[in-house]
Design goal:
Elements lengths: L7 E8 L11 H11 L7 E4 L12 E8 L6 E6 L3 H7 L3 E5 L2 E4 L18 E8 L10 E7 L4 E6 L5 E6 L3 E8 L7 E7 L3 E5 L10 H5 L13 E6 L10 E6 L16 H10 L12 E6 L7 E2 H13 L4 E4 L1 E2 L5 H12 L3 E5 L17 E9 L23 E3 L11 E4 L3 E5 L3 E5 L2 H17 L2 H4 L5 H12 L2 E2 L5 H4 L3 E2 L6
Parallel strand pairs: 7-13, 14-16, 14-18, 15-16, 18-20, 20-21, 21-23
Antiparallel strand pairs: 1-4, 1-5, 2-3, 3-4, 6-17, 6-19, 7-10, 8-9, 8-11, 11-12, 21-22, 24-25, 26-27
Helix pairs in contact: 4-7, 5-6
């Protein structure tokens, strides 16, 4: 007898041609999916009959149904990998897709990974982080590279006295990075001779500072939208924040409270939401837009492709006009692709971040041909000289030599647009403000400007919700794009501009 592999994994079941079926499409498959839907609440093991003539009844296929999208729609199941072939032959007419997980497309201290393998500790350094008034800053991430190419160095987080002690194998730092979660700009320095103590001062965030977003889009002078435009944000959740009004949404993370669609505490979705629609002490590019928050990220974890599929399905049901996905993964995913297609067929255009893997190919879902893929650019003079952002400056420069494509931004022929994504100030949970970098920031800058441009053409927004509507939205946006001089691999067609500013 073949020895069974006891490891079970999660897979997504999806109809062959659509995201859901009716009985007229394939009665047998529709009945099967309906039967699976009824067992979701119990999450107990089903014994599905095998069509293997050599198996006994006791050898039926054990399956646990974890989640469902619509009665005759996608299912998330847990099944032993050894049973997959038997399952495919026993229940044809379904696509079987691995569950996988996506990360936010933000460039932060999580992107810098160290492999510390010092044979001998030569230098002990105490790093003191303070603000300009001498206040010690707690929970600040410090990363010191002694050999950047080899990823050698040390990292840590400051204590309540603003202090972190690091042990290093050299007395020279090739690079020093300092990251604040909120309220302060980060810090970056090359080729630093290390002493026993290193004092670093962080500059507070000033809401009157003209960052890269406000250089290109003077948000303080942009009027609130009066035409209804609804943008779905698929992220870590949005808010609460006094500058943000969230019209509604849903928490799609399995096992969490569906009504809690606010930020999970990481701040990423709130920052994205502020870039699009903040209005108060700080304005986004489309103040007055209706924001729908779809939380797909658990705290400190990746987002399941199934939860992202559920979120797109909710955005379709809620009649969003645009969807922002500041997230990505290297491999394509036919499950998410199917729902992006459903959104487009419902007159909704998806925007997605290119990814932050240092000029790597465009990540998915941005690489999907029905998504608007957005790279990140920056501008000299829109961040403090010693900030982390100063380390993101890299060729190519644009027609205006002060503009550049961020060193972290992914590029490729799938790129459609570029937008400000270096040193962007936006909202952060609990009425705070933060500076973040990434195609995660460029994507909502583009989506927000798209919302503002489309608000000026209600005839398009009032079209029936079908593919023609989405086509017309894209065509209207296309005539409001200005080339920045980077070349198509870096910027696609260019940057969205208001009709009267081209």
């Amino acid at each position: 007898m073949k020895k069974k592999n006891t490891a079970s994994k999660n897979y997504i079941l999806l109809p062959v041609f659509r995201t859901h079926l009716s009985k007229q499409d394939s009665p047998n498959v529709a009945r099967f999916l309906t039967m699976l839907s009824k067992s979701v609440e119990h999450a107990s093991t089903l014994s599905l009959a095998s069509r293997d003539m050599h198996q006994k009844a006791s050898d039926d296929i054990p399956v646990v149904v974890l989640d469902s999208i619509e009665t005759q729609g996608a299912k998330l199941i847990r099944i032993n990998a050894d049973e997959l072939a038997n399952f495919r032959f026993s229940y044809p007419g379904l696509r079987i897709i691995k569950e996988k997980f996506y990360k936010p497309a933000v460039c932060s201290h999580h992107r810098i990974k160290l492999q510390v393998e010092q044979a001998e500790i030569k230098t002990a350094v105490t790093v003191n982080i303070k603000d300009p008034k001498g206040k010690p800053l707690e929970d600040i991430t410090v990363v010191i590279f002694t050999n950047f190419a080899a990823s050698k160095g040390a990292s840590g987080v400051t204590d309540n006295k603003g202090v972190i002690k690091l042990n290093l194998d050299r007395n020279t730092a090739e690079r020093i990075y300092v990251y604040a979660n909120h309220s302060y700009w980060g810090y970056f320095k090359k080729d630093v001779q290390l002493a026993a103590a290193l004092d670093i001062q962080l500059e507070p965030v000033d809401l009157n500072f003209k960052d890269s977003l406000r250089h290109f889009y003077d948000t303080a002078k942009l009027p609130q939208l009066t035409q209804k435009v609804r943008v779905g944000i698929i992220d870590t959740g949005v808010g609460p924040h006094n500058d943000l009004k969230v019209a509604g949404g849903k928490n799609l993370v399995r096992g969490e409270n569906e009504t809690d669609y606010h930020d999970n505490g990481e701040g990423h979705g709130t920052h994205v939401g502020g870039i699009i629609g903040a209005y108060g002490k700080l304005n986004g590019v489309a103040a007055g837009v209706e924001i729908m928050s779809y939380r797909v990220f658990p705290k400190d974890s990746g987002a399941s492709n199934f939860d992202i599929m559920k979120a797109i399905n909710e955005a379709i049901a809620d009649q969003c006009d645009l969807i922002n996905m500041s997230l990505g993964e290297s491999q394509t995913d036919e499950g998410i692709t199917s729902y992006i297609k459903e959104a487009y067929n419902a007159g909704i255009v998806c925007f997605a971040a290119n990814g932050n893997d240092s000029r790597s190919p465009v990540s998915f879902p941005a690489s999907d041909s029905l998504c608007i893929a957005v790279s990140a650019m920056g501008r000299l003079g829109t961040f403090p000289p010693d900030s982390v952002e100063s380390g993101s400056v890299e060729e190519p420069y644009g027609t205006d030599q002060n503009n550049f494509i961020a060193d972290f931004s992914n590029i490729g022929p799938e790129t459609d647009l570029t937008a400000p994504g270096v040193g962007v100030i936006s909202t952060y949970p609990n009425n705070l403000y933060a500076v973040m970098d990434g195609t995660s920031m460029a994507c909502p800058a583009a989506a927000g400007m798209a919302a503002r441009i489309l608000a000026g053409n209600p005839d398009i927004l009032n079209l029936p919700r079908n593919q023609t509507r989405a086509d017309e939205m894209v065509k209207y946006l296309s005539v409001n794009i200005k080339s920045m001089g980077f070349g198509n691999l870096y910027e696609g067609k260019g940057m969205l501009q208001l009709p009267d500013s081209k």
